[in-house]
Amino acid sequence: MSASDAHTADQPSCPLAHGDGLLPDELRAWMVLLAATGAVEQRLRSVVKETLDVSHDEFLILCLLAEQPRTGLRMTQVADLLGRPKTRLTYQIACLQRAGLVSRSSVCGDKRGVQVTLTDKARDLLRETSALLAGTVRQALADSMGPEQRAAMCSLVPDLETGTR
């Protein structure tokens, strides 16, 4: 038995995976998704800290910025997209800036606007670690979702099973 099998065997079966409860399929699938997300976040926290030396929330900021054009995003956009308070975000951006992973600049024509962009150092670091981080996500999902959970997810996203859109 591999470590992954042992970990999966330790996991209780998800009571939400079965269709005999009060919840409709969509709510049951949502609960499965939340449990899977929690498992991924828990596993990622330590890997992100070890490989990138940033917090999980700071990592989410880096990921969000990595998917944007090189011009970055305004701080208000980052806060809105991540659902984070602007005051907390200001602290996290300052930490990332001290680490040399993001830069801040004023928005032209808006004296209060602040634009945040990834630095080349951050882009290189994300390229170097992305395979490990993606593998961590895949393994956490595999460990936390069995066939019943995947079936419940298909209730939320019916095309997930077939891969069509």
TrEMBL record:
InterPro entries associated with the record:
HTH_MarR-typ, MarR/SlyA-like, WH-like_DNA-bd_sf, WH_DNA-bd_sf
- Could you tell me which Gene3D superfamilies the record lists for this protein? Winged helix-like DNA-binding domain superfamily/Winged helix DNA-binding domain
State the superkingdom: Bacteria
Residue limits of the HTH marR-type domain?
26-162
In Swiss-Prot or TrEMBL terms, this protein is called HTH marR-type domain-containing protein
According to the entry, what is the taxonomic lineage of the organism?
Bacteria, Bacillati, Actinomycetota, Actinomycetes, Kitasatosporales
